[in-house]
Amino acid sequence: MVFSSLLFLFRFLPIVLLAYYVLPKKWHNLVLFLASLVFYAWGEPVYVILILFSTTVDYVAGQAVAYCKANQKKKGAIAAVCCSAVINLSLLGFFKYADFFLQILHQVTGIKTGQLHLPLPIGISFYTFQTMSYTIDVYRGDAKVQKNLITFGAYVSLFPQLIAGPIIRYKDVAKQLDQRKETVSLFSQGIFHFMIGLGKKVLIANQIGMLWQQIAAMKTGSLTTATAWLGVLAFTLQIYFDFSGYSDMAIGLGAMFGFSFPENFNYPYASKSITEFWRRWHISLGTWFREYVYIPLGGNRKGIVRQIVNLAIVWFLTGLWHGAYINFVLWGVYYGILLVIEKFLLKNVLKALPAILQHFYTMLLVMVGWSLFSWQDMTDAAGYIKTMFFYGGAGYINDQTFYLLLSNGILILIALFGSLSWSKDWCNRYFFPEGTMRREICRIVLVIVLLLSCVAMLVNSSYNPFLYFRF
What PANTHER family does the annotation carry (predicted)? Predict the structure, then answer.
């Protein structure tokens, strides 16, 4: 079940909201826990056992950490944290990476190994990181142990952000799990946030994604350089509106149930450096790796060489986290190299450039990165990237390029406008000025228009993927 489906919009969500607000407050976490299990089981019933197992493991580990700390048994607390990490990462590794490593083993040693072909449990990369953050936060003293198993289960399986984030660290919602307050204002904000996200997903990401699919399906020899760049531009916009749209819907749903989730995207395509891009893109993932990997490794506190090694580890893991394919690993390495070069060689050079050149530099490298990210077959990736840079293909530009550009020009302009931060400033100035009646009227009108438009599009279209479901 996905948020951008008629089943979710008109059956599942209304039923859950009704049950949540009709029942007494003491039952709210139980409602969320059970509803989340139903939501998760809708696609993969058997893997409900897996998420319940992870919940139990980390609940027990958290209790053990708290007990050991209270009785000054530091080694016991460390052992509990390590057990939690080993079990969680083992499950993630087995289901997500078993075939990947078996294939590498075959290529390196020649030993014939069969493939397990296990279906990937939805959201396992996200909830694994969340459950690990709980035991670590309890050990560090950043959060108190959660004694209520139902409340902890609601945190782990919370359906608004279960399957594609944002990654919610336990310490960020610990108080909200027990003491959140649902208000009409927060619920209203949640509806607006959700509808913005739904519009991003259905009206922009899905539509421009079809352009990318059309270009990606072409044989490399028939592509022109301009068409290849048009395809990468389409994917660049699709993945932003797809993933940020999902995050907006998750944040909006959280608000409807009284939660305040952190923003996961802050107009990353407005960045003027790769460093800034990764401060704005998938913020919750970057924050998790910084706090639970980079800083514990020593961060930038142990010299330049150690800092470069730490960055290399983090970006290798970031790439691997996205999927069990070599293109994702190379994509992570690509950004690790760029960030090291930028941090130690180009920092002052970039600052001296005009803003427009800084932005051009950033988006050029980001789009090259997406061209690598989008192809799981490295032969296809290499051929496509070669065409982008005038090597091979069917020349520079042709009639097909102009046709595709003219057919999708308005959509591309709308997407480009929406991906830059000044679009928000422009909208707030002319349609949503703070503290005015115009703001409220425009918000209501926009929600209605988006809902009707999205429903009409969902009824008539079968193309409705979520790109980050596979991660």
Answer: ACYLTRANSFERASE (PTHR13285), PROTEIN-CYSTEINE N-PALMITOYLTRANSFERASE RASP (PTHR13285:SF18)
